[in-house]
Design a protein that fits this description.
about 240 residues; alpha+beta; four-stranded antiparallel beta sheet; 10 helices; about 60% helix
Amino acid sequence: MTHTYQLSGLTCDGCTAKVTYLLSQVADIELVEINADRNEATIQMKKHIGTADLKAALAAYPKYQIDEVVSQAAARATFKTSEADQTTSWLKTYKPILLIFGYITGVTLLTADNLMDGIRYFMAGFFLVFSFFKLLNISAFADSYAMYDIVAKRFSAWGFIYPFVELAFGVAALVNFQPVVTNWLMLVVMTVSLVGVLESVFNKRKIRCACLGTVFNLPMSTVTIVEDSLMIVLSAAMLWLM
């Protein structure tokens, strides 16, 4: 018999090889095939093996998680939530981001005297707050970030550097330090970051967004695209206004 499982925590070819080996050691498993792009494992087994046994095989490495994929028939049978329930669920999921944007927008409107200052203060608040949450557990952020960012996938240290880059952007925007250079750097860095986000969303990969570190369990979605795109648009607007 063959079953498909959802994996998380795979950040490189070494991770794929390690998980393949660990799962292959479970009794009665005949073959393990992992699709790293889809974060899925297809396992052939002599007899049914519970998901708990597979989780136990990966227990020594907590970053690797495995869960059984719900069949399409089961998914259709359970998809009975009303439109109101879906709206409530969406608001609950993204409440942290909505609150953060609300606070930053409110402070910006209360303190800015003109359009350029308003954009600058908003960007400063965005980068300072988002870097704060990433720095709360920088190691966990780096692991999550490497699952989708095109630079962090190839250069693991970038996941540890990126929160400090955001922090530097926030401080630079707040004090108006070298605005032309700062906004060009913001434009480039956020554009590169957006590429990985777009790839994950368009490929419908169900992974966690690391925009607020690992404090909140936020799924990668169009909301993440809007976040990065907003910073790109604002940095471009600042360059145009200057």
